[in-house]
Specification:
The complex is a heterodimer of chains A (230) and B (214). With 230 residues, chain A is mostly helical. Chain A has helices at residues 5-15, 29-39, 45-51, 63-76, 81-122, 125-152, 163-190, 193-208, 213-229. Helix content of chain B is 75%, strand content 0%. The mean pLDDT of chain B is 90. The chains are: A mainly alpha (230), B mainly alpha (214).
Chain lengths: 230, 214
């Protein structure tokens, strides 16, 4: 069973839009359906539209694995819509968790840290390296996700144990830790370390205590005003 | 560069985050570079982008969590700085642009919730008319674009008309760097430092020292 090139391109391109209509009601539900309908055979589109109207949420890059496997299930025609829905329900959370940890929590911040240090030192090379390297991993998962999902079918979930997830995550954790140390020593000696060290400790404590976002921003504004006034 | 044009370009850049692809173009370090290039000062754009990137390094959009809009902050911070710089000193502009960026991040996060609530209407419309899937779904591009335009326009209009009085607080680049790098380091420590990786942080620190000595 083969997924033709035209269908593959249609699925890939439409999967870029998976978050376009993100809502609290169905999250990526419409985006997922949009991609499925774009990639499905014409005679199956109405059936798919009726079956997958509801909730769907996973990591946007990882959705490709589920989309590929779902389209294969429809092409084979052996599984009932309920079985397909059950597969989607199970896999979406597993892939969401893997994708969030791999991309949002590890790979992207690590690469951004590298790019930031490079851009402060070398200018435009930093952003260029970030865009190129990040999209190599990003598009790899988008493309391989569709292909592997279609080729492997419902066993695609076992790919979560593969090196493309575990090893890459481990490498970028190390890279992130290494560049944190590098940034610290480069910054502490170049700029005022008597301010940098206590401020870093303050913000680390805020983050560990889970005083997220708005409170941290307000703290920054207050600190800025105090520092500027002093 | 006109206020309308920079708002439209900024909103188009932010479609990357909300509506199309997530290729990383909307990250402050990249958007700052683009805006800097548009205003003819790419180095300042990269510097501001890098600092805002460090401040918002740890905003994780996991599950239903909607962190402050760091990407919008990057565009607002850089755009406002250049617009303010036309009539004000760079120290005044830097202070106000940073405040605008941080406020923009909070407002962007709030508007994000409203946009997603509005998208529910599109979803209900699709439920009633099954064959309008493409129209309902792709209308999300318009809501995402309008959301960011609504965040950017007031800040950029303000930045283009404000003349900052001489007694207003000023900020030099070093203060912004101290704040940005300390939050960036805190984010990095929170994200990467575990028992198993702490040795690599020490190694990185030693390499940094060696680089400085050499």
């Amino acid at each position: 069973m083969r997924l033709g090139f035209t269908r593959f391109i249609k699925i890939l391109f439409s999967s870029f839009f998976i978050q376009t209509s993100w809502s609290f009601f169905s999250m990526q539900g419409m985006g997922f359906l949009f991609t499925l309908v774009s990639g499905a055979e014409k005679n199956q589109r109405d059936k798919i539209r009726k079956t997958h109207k509801g909730f769907f949420n996973t990591h946007p890059y990882m959705s490709s694995y589920i989309i590929g496997a779902t389209i294969r299930a429809y092409d084979e025609g052996k599984s009932s819509p309920d079985e397909i829905k059950r597969f989607i329900t199970i896999t979406q959370t597993s892939f969401a968790s893997a994708g969030d940890i791999l991309f949002w929590q590890t790979l992207r911040p690590a690469l951004l840290l590298v790019a930031t240090i490079l851009s402060i030192k070398l200018g435009i090379i930093g952003p260029i390296i970030f865009i190129v390297v990040y999209n190599i991993f990003h598009l790899y998962h988008r493309i391989k996700g569709i292909k592997d999902g279609y080729n492997i079918g419902w066993d695609v979930i076992y790919l979560l144990k593969s090196k493309r997830f575990t090893t890459v995550q481990h490498i970028f954790e190390i890279l992130g830790a290494f560049f944190s140390g590098l940034l610290f020593s480069l910054a502490a000696l170049k700029i005022n370390y008597l301010l940098l060290i206590p401020l870093t400790l303050l913000f680390t404590v805020l983050l560990i205590k889970r005083f997220w976002s708005v409170l941290i921003i307000i703290t920054v504004i207050l600190l800025l005003i105090i520092m500027v006034m002093v | 560069m006109s206020v309308i044009l920079i708002s439209i370009i900024g909103s188009a850049i932010l479609l990357d985050k909300y509506a199309f692809g997530e290729f990383g173009i909307s990250q402050p370090i990249v958007s700052g570079t683009i805006i800097g290039a548009l205003f003819g000062d790419i180095h300042t754009g990269i510097f501001l982008g890098a600092i805002f990137q460090l401040i918002f390094l740890g905003g994780l959009p996991i599950g239903r969590n909607i962190p402050p809009d760091g990407q919008a902050a990057g565009v607002i911070g850089c755009g406002s700085y250049f617009l303010l710089g036309a009539a004000n000193s760079s120290e005044h502009s830097l202070f106000l642009a940073t405040i605008f960026a941080l406020l923009g991040a909070i407002i962007g996060g709030v508007l994000d919730i409203y946009t997603r609530q509005y998208n529910e209407k599109l979803n209900h419309m699709f439920m009633r008319k099954e064959h309008s899937l493409y129209l309902c779904h792709l209308s999300g591009l318009v809501t995402a674009f309008m959301r960011t335009l609504c965040v950017f326009l007031p800040f950029f209009i303000l930045s283009s008309i404000i003349t900052i009085p001489a007694g207003f607080p000023q900020m030099n680049r070093e203060i912004l760097m101290i704040i940005g790098i300390s939050i960036g380091l805190a984010n990095a420590i929170y994200l990467f430092i575990r028992k198993t990786t702490i040795i690599y942080m020490v190694l990185g620190g030693l390499c940094g020292l060696a680089l400085l000595v050499l």
